[in-house]
Fold these 2 entries.
Entry 1:
Amino acid sequence: MGKNVKLKDIARELNLSKTTVSFVLSGIGDEKGISKATQAKILDYSQAINYRPNQLAQSLTSGITNTIGLIVPSIGDAFYAKLVKEIEKEAEKRGYVILISSSERDSRREMNLIYTMRAKQVDGLVIAPTDNCKKEVEKLLEDNFPFVLVDRICLELDTNYVIIDDEESSYKLVRNLIDKGRRKIAFLTTDTKGSAILNRAKGYHRALEDTGTKLDRSLVKEVPRENYSAYTGDILRELFENHPDIDGFFFAAHYLASETMLYMYKNGMDISSFGLATIHDNPVVEALAPNMSVAKIPLDVMAGKAVNILWTNMKKKGVNEMSGTVIPAKIVIKD
Amino acid sequence: MGKNVKLKDIARELNLSKTTVSFVLSGIGDEKGISKATQAKILDYSQAINYRPNQLAQSLTSGITNTIGLIVPSIGDAFYAKLVKEIEKEAEKRGYVILISSSERDSRREMNLIYTMRAKQVDGLVIAPTDNCKKEVEKLLEDNFPFVLVDRICLELDTNYVIIDDEESSYKLVRNLIDKGRRKIAFLTTDTKGSAILNRAKGYHRALEDTGTKLDRSLVKEVPRENYSAYTGDILRELFENHPDIDGFFFAAHYLASETMLYMYKNGMDISSFGLATIHDNPVVEALAPNMSVAKIPLDVMAGKAVNILWTNMKKKGVNEMSGTVIPAKIVIKD
DNA sequence: CCAACTTACTAAACCGGTTAACTAAATATA
DNA sequence: TATATTTAGTTAACCGGTTTAGTAAGTTGG
């Protein structure tokens, strides 16, 4: 790589001072009273040698890196990949670039990532937090560092966040199944204890209560989040054995829905005979279960709001007023 | 945010010089002859006030940011999301963090991204290049900047790269279909002209030639990459109308395979009656077409090799010997 | 008892930019 | 003609670390 040209080199070459060159290249040449002739000379030469300012040096003085840190549970997951894409898009609009990492749902890792990113002086953080996020997020609050949580929140803490109305959406979906005459609705959820999952369970419970349907705990199954694919088969088999008359399913997550659809498809079951509903879907669900009602998480809206909140927080360096935003999921009822 | 503690603050507080503090915190206290007592004092105090060195400043002097730039066509795409995940994993092993951006298959954007990332002083770049990558990649070569291409290469340029054996894999897949007695094998590809796509077409052609099968141009369909989903239906309809006796398909990309499977499934066609093969698959293909042969792209291997090549390139700052690696896709034949 | 050597640090330059404060020369004003 | 103002720059400090070269005080050897 070698000889990257610096401001000093340009200055020496043109018999000018670093200051003059810096003024011109920063676009404040007129303002600083640099003659048109000199400006042209500087611009031409910089162009010719393909000068590229070192942003590290610039950031060191300005205190701004134009970089946002983004931490998600797993970038390999199609859902988070879409979220990342939208956040990248929004960030780019405002001139930010994204430093990304996966927490792998491990709060220790999450803490380290936050540390690393802050060391790299990111201007702000967007985090889809782990279940045990309290400690590291608390530190961000203490330091009054700009950040916003997305998709899930950190219980007990007053932070910026953008999430969907998990409980309400779940309520509506389950309520709809019951209203359509379904009586034995199984609930597949995960063993994680994040805010989103907990609220989805609440929605399920409330819909049962409101309709006077008795909660049958044996219809509620917690699939281990790690390696869920390996467990779903056995869990479903057991479920169908104990309850051959199940007539509906509510899924707390898209991957549980698709796993179940695959199971039914492979076992020759009639998917269309069930009342089905899920929080967010995926291509497999769309393909196999046109009759699945869905609460679609509007990732573009979520990303837009999140980056916006973060942006205002980064601008006013003063006190942070926390802004919690709950956006409605897009409910699509199918029959 | 406010009062980030600096080296100077620690030095003042402990009545020591910046130098001493820096030595100790860099772990070279012994080497530099700083007394144990002083070292302990510095370490304790830094810990207590939660000192966090500013990596911008460190990088400015060292010339190293421990950051890798990663540019993919689209991070929202499940395939690239997986690739990103693997690259992140490999990078992390070596202490690197990832700056990510999507080129959106636009070489202008790609050029700007490369510029931005170099301005931010990334130590190296991993790029899944656009079809028109020549200009920007040439500049990287000129500047002897460390980078490696993945998934696709830049035609006519001698660079580092890691790709799969597109032609050979395609050949094997198509050859297998023919050997199993398929005679009218349609080829669905895209209108893009990247290296991967071109080589997959070559494989298809060569398999036909070697088996004395006549190439029927009307069996080859280029689906527009942008908004492919909107076009596939019409293209397939036309294909089946003109060739009711099609008995096989070879897909140049997983999304073409899944779109076609969805079409067949929705139209009640018997998927199992066709001979099917694709380069890489996805969950929908797996679900609907257990009889589809696949050349799986080993993203973990690809990422591992790529980061490794990049890493050695970043270490030896000298001349770059370009290392092109072609890894075999994992061929899975199904019936 | 003085030179030589250790020990335990420090001053200042540097990385590559930005910026506040200053100046020399040219022109305008009184 | 002497002074004020404008024009077109420059000097040097700074951002927050690292690093080279150096030094003061204490210890050892002859």
Note: The longest helix of chain B spans residues 299-315.
Entry 2:
Amino acid sequence: MGRKREFDEEKALDAAMQVFWKKGYHATSLTDLTTNMELQRPSIYSAFGDKEKLFEAALRNYTKLHISNIRSKLQYNKSVKDTIRLFFEDLVEEKCQGNQNKGCFCINTMVELAPHDEKFEILTREHQMYLSVIFQEMIQNGIQSGEFHRDLDAKALAQTLVVSLIGITVLMKSRPERSFIDNAIISTLSLLK
Amino acid sequence: MGRKREFDEEKALDAAMQVFWKKGYHATSLTDLTTNMELQRPSIYSAFGDKEKLFEAALRNYTKLHISNIRSKLQYNKSVKDTIRLFFEDLVEEKCQGNQNKGCFCINTMVELAPHDEKFEILTREHQMYLSVIFQEMIQNGIQSGEFHRDLDAKALAQTLVVSLIGITVLMKSRPERSFIDNAIISTLSLLK
DNA sequence: TAAATTTCATACTAATCAGTATGAAATTTC
DNA sequence: GAAATTTCATACTGATTAGTATGAAATTTA
């Protein structure tokens, strides 16, 4: 019964994600959203609730995509260390180029909203923890296979990688010299041995 | 000639700095500013220009204070490594407590404004570069005194410390387990040897 | 003391904000 | 095909936004 929805909810959410990712929560207006989602206001409100609900949905959409993206980039091939190195180098490469310096939506939200809203404090924290677990598993594989020393602290090193990842992602927003980032990557990866 | 200014410009700027530091640029309204600066709108506009000018003045005020703050915390005493360790541990301690998770004003701005305004891209980048130079000088001292290996890359390690500092400062906004941060500090400092 | 000048407080502006009421268009169920 | 139901577009709401015009209060120069 009733009329059929004319818009693709998933596409609309992706568009919302892009806008919030680029501009953040407060700098994004409903007008920005209607323009980019190609939807009228009532459609947005009926499908996603208010601005904050939409933001949360967009962020959850992002973290899900982000995790699967990272998982595929970290597919085990030969050396764990080389895989991680390539991951970091790719990060620098893609963020330097076309990608207009949006950084990581989750990190942006950690800075903008986590201190003011427990919901986002938890959401962003759990995402980072999840990332550290992925790194930890990789490092453990490296230990098992003999690539790394037996007495390496996989958990601690994985958490260090996450801290480094955040630092690099944030610092790149100020477009520092390439070598600044490269040096940080080299030093950090030298911990894996 | 004319009436004397009744307010302390420096105090007003400090108050503005606190508000922008806590809430960021977009989430801070002129009403927030008049309340916290205890000034009427026309007084703010005549003394500092518009909202963006005031923000820039507040940020410059912050970076100046921040540098002198860090310089005093990094006063050389005995071991360079211990001094740096203490610096990072203090950071965790103070940000965990009373300080209501504001993080670093400069880093917050790097995330919120640097990608959208070249003026802030430059300002925040230069601040981070300045910090790395301070670390670099310390590490060079450590090499000179024999505390560190002769072949340590002081510049690269200093830049790594800055990346780590940023990562930790940002991650703490999501209030992760204390050990997460502690592990990152221990690992990163293990590069100084 | 009088004129000149600056600060400050009130009250305002036009624009934009998030969110919604209303009714027409479209589709389904009966 | 008629009634019921849902979506969509237009146009609106009251609140809040950044920024300012105006005049009174206060101080200085002459």
Note: Chain A touches chain B through 52 residues (CB under 8 Å).
